[in-house]
Automatic annotation (TrEMBL):
Pfam families hit by this protein: AHSA1
Organism per entry: Sediminibacterium roseum
Source species, domain of life: Bacteria
Protein name: SRPBCC domain-containing protein
InterPro entries: ASHA1/2-like_C, START-like_dom_sf
Domain Activator of Hsp90 ATPase homologue 1/2-like C-terminal stretches: 15-129
Family: Belongs to the AHA1 family.
Entries under CDD domains matching the protein: SRPBCC_CalC_Aha1-like (cd07814)
Amino acid sequence: MKSDFSTSFTVPNTAQEVFDAITNVRAWWAGTVEGESKKTGDEFTYRYKNMHYSRHRLTEVIPCKKITWETVESALNFVENQQEWAGTTIDFDITASGGTTTLRFTHHGLQPLLACYNDCTNAWNHYINGCLRELVLLKMLKTTAVELIRNCLILNSVFL
């Protein structure tokens, strides 16, 4: 039975805010990202020191719903089979409901039998549930702060 790595989080943000954060890969995936990551057909490379290189192609982009990356190339220099990610796919499924949005991340092909599984799942948990989630929440906090400042300015102009 296949057991692809999957994780998820729910935030009080819009699906658009979650979608925008995912497509801004440079903002949440530490390392060097080159190329584009916004629309179907875009390709980008990711490098982290001399440990990780991968090239990804966006094969499906449905705004505010789903993004799929195909891993076209990989060089994971910390395992014997450096191509473990090559041919795998990564799905970002976005579901909005009742004022919250859930992101389900699945790396199809990243399974417990792979040598990189423990290191890679630890890294994905850090990037998805840490960096990406925080980026999404920061957007909400910035929006709220701007609204609060705007409201204060309006009240000040009315009462002063």
